[in-house]
């Protein structure tokens, strides 16, 4: 009955919030300030570019940071921090805690990120309204 009323996706995103709040120590992935009430589960590689939920492709962000990022790829600085956080340091924890809800394949998430940055023809989002050029 709970799945019917609230949906599995909603419960899954709550689980993502729990996992990533622990991993990110309560900080927004992008601005690194404390997360309070308005927390968005963000697809690091935007859903518009790769419309699949992968357990290692999530980060937590302020709703305002997430709203400014939109469907842009994050800057290379963010990319390196994402790789360190989600692939190098917490690959196993993410897989263990989210595998019941999402495909958790760190190698696939890394391949998707590599592909997205290779085919990107636009600018990379840094913060707020700031962008960097694609190298």
Mean pLDDT level: 91
Beta-strand fraction estimate: 5-15%
Give the structural class: alpha+beta
Portion in helices: 40-55%
Main β sheet profile: 3 strands, mixed
Number of strands: 5
Number of continuous helical runs = 6
How many domains comprise the coordinates? 1
Global Rg: 14 Å
Distance between the termini: 50 Å
**Outline, from the CA principal axes?**
globular
Q: How are strands sequenced across the largest beta sheet? A: 3-4-5
The arrangement of helices and strands along the chain is HHEEHEHHHEE
- Stretches where pLDDT falls below 50 for ≥5 residues? 1-8
Describe this structure in words.
The chain has 135 residues and is an alpha+beta fold. It has one domain. Helix content is 47%, strand content 14%. The strands form 2 sheets. Strands 3-4-5 form a 3-stranded mixed β-sheet. Helix 2 (8-23) runs antiparallel to helix 5 and helix 4 runs antiparallel to helix 6.
